[in-house]
Structures are given as structure tokens and as C-alpha cells.
Amino acid sequence: MPGRTGRGVGDEPGQGAGGTNLGGRGAGATPAGRRPVAAGQAACLPSFTRLPYSAADFDCVERKAGDIMSVWARGAGAVAVAAALVLGAGPGAAVAADPVRSPYGASTGVGVHNAYEKAKYRYFADALDSGAAMLELDVWTNAFGRSWRVSHGNPLGNDNNCENAAHAGELRTRPRNQDLGGCLADIRAWHDAHPGHRPVLLKIEMKDGFQARHGRGPADLDALLTARLGDALFRPADLAGAHPDLDTAVRADGWPTRDRLAGKFVVELIPGTVEEGNPADSLWTDREYAAHLRGLAAAGRLREAGAFPAVHRAQGGDPRLRYADAGLRPWFVVFDGDASVYAGGSVDTSWYARHDYLLVMTDAHSVAPAIDGTHPTEAQARDRLALLAGRHASVVSADWYPLPSVLSTVVPRAGG
């Protein structure tokens, strides 16, 4: 139904305080597919000190968190008691017991690839309701079409589940196939109805890059994001604070805690497949937007920026060294690439965790042994999430839209 309300600041969809699964279950409910602990059953003890994490570890912490939900509500002293039940499992267990208060960079969530597709969600509001940590949009900017188009394979028009809702009451009532502004309008309408929602990473693939000559450049995107999302954006300036660039800021202070990011959207930009395959395009989205950030910062106008550029595609070492202009490198603190490469052993993924960088791992289902990209069992999806959290992912993405109980789960990210 449109316009659902009733969450407080710091609450995430369906979350009982302290649960690891952030969608759909009330306090004390048994997780779907899990048996309740029988009377007299031996207490479990998760082990977040070994890698990779197992699904059994998270089952255990989830069970403990469910046991303490009713205690949690009684105040800060009770919170400390509740946390003590899992602290013996190691530092990461505290994240599982209290995902809302964990640092954003210390947790791992699940994202949906191309969440704008109507075959996945009838409306984009449904994608927002899924509890997913990341939702992806594909955007076209070429001069052969109007505005910022959102579609997968049509570079000239819109083919998506966005409605351009003016307010929450219009969600799920209007014609779909709107442009990026329409998708952002839906996001704002949903946000207004759920002001304390989980932090959501909005990943935008710029399919054919920016087109500044046609009014679709970095500054134009900033203006659109600001006009549509406004104070719901977590901006580069919010992360940078008094530091000179994003890298210095995140190394010094890390990312805010999830409760401080409640009600916020973090926008990630990656170069698109068409852009990367175009031999005539020598200025890809990542470099162009990083240069834009640098210029804004130099002019004292970083507050105008609305997005974070990502280094695209997995690579060993510091992948920012690919940028010949060393001055661009400090503006990248988000990295995005194929999960199979990151998990294959050729990349030291602990480097990302040590520096508090966000690491988005795509095609999570393809990591050996491969599982179904859309319809794995819940146990398979949770095992894959556990594996990649142990490989230091911040977000793992696939097409697991039929599994909202998995999409809304937040687990500890392995430390560096």
C-alpha cells in the first residue's frame, strides 16, 4: 500500500531493536526457515574470529539477538547487557547484535542489481520496501534522447518501474517508465513516509557517461539530486568534514554509524558498459566526477556535490593508481567490481577494510561454487553473504529480489 508510515529514527523496515535481519519480522519472531531453539538445547557461540564466516555463525547471533529484543527496549543499560551476550564471539559479533549502531563501513548488506526493472518490482517503491542495502539504476544521457533516461537496453527512452510520485499517496498509482528525475521523486516520496529508514546505497551506472554539452554533466546531476532528494542525501561534504579530501577523511574518521545515516541515501557512480566500450570516449564517469569533486573542493563548494565516484572493476593493490592524475586518487573511497575476482585470492581485500573503504561486490552468485542468480535457496544466499562478508565486502549484489529476508539482512564485515 502507498504511504506506509510509522517507523522512528534509527528503525529499519520490520526491525525489532537489535535484530540482524532488518525487514519483515517483529520482535521475538523466529527467522523464516529457522527452527526455534528447543528447551534445554545447548547455547550456541558464533565464531567471528575465523574466516570465512559461516551461515551457522549468523544463525547463532540472530537467535541471541531475538532472545534479547524485549530486553533491548528497556534502555542503555539493557543494551550493554544484551551486547555482552555476543561480545564473546569477537568484535564483529557486536555489529550483528546491534547493526543500527555499527559503523556503516563495518557492516555488509545485500543489493539488488537493476532494481528499476519491472520484472523484479512492479514499482520502485516495492524495491525500496524490500529492505535491500543497495538499489541500482542504469542511466543514459546521449543526445539522441531527452533528459536522463532510465532503462537497461533502450538508450533513447525510459523503461522502468518509476512513477514520478509527488508524495507517498501517489506511489503505486501512476504511469511508469519515467526518467531519472521521476525515480528520484519516488525515492523522496518513499523517504518522506519512512523518515528513519535504513541507509540505502543508490548505485547509478552511467551507461554512456556524462554529456555536459547537452545539460547532463556532473554539475547537472548534482542539481537534480539536490532538487529531488535534498536533505535525504549523504553528501561527499558530509564525509569530508574539515578534511581536505575523502580519502583523508575516511582514514581519519571512518564512515558514520548506521544510526547516524538513518534516513539517508548514498549515491555511487560507476562508468557504464557502453562508455567503457567506446573507443572514442576518453573521459569516463569515474575520472570526470572525481575531477568535478576536486574542483568544487578547491572553490569551497564541495557541499554542492551529491555523489561518490567509484573505482570500477576489481584489481590488485591500490586500483586508484590507474589514474595518471594523482590528484584524483584521494576522491575515491568506494570500489566496485566482480565478486569472483575479489573472492578468488588474487586481490588482498583486507586492504579495503583496513582503510574503511566501501567495497561493492557484484554478481555474488557467480563466486565458486556458483548458485542461482535469482532463485537460490535462502540458505545458499545467506552462505554466500557470509562468505563475501568474510572477504571484506560492504555490499554484495545479485538478482535475489525474491528473497526479501536475505536482502534486509546486515552482517558484520570482516576487519582488516
UniProtKB/TrEMBL annotation:
Molecular function GO terms recorded: phosphoric diester hydrolase activity
Pfam families, sorted: PI-PLC-C1
Regions of compositional bias (Gly residues) in chain numbering: 1-27
Annotated segments matching region Disordered: 1-34
Biological process, per Gene Ontology: lipid metabolic process
Record InterPro entries: PI-PLC-C1, PLC-like_Pdiesterase_TIM-brl
Protein name as catalogued: Lipoprotein
Organism: Streptomyces fradiae ATCC 10745 = DSM 40063
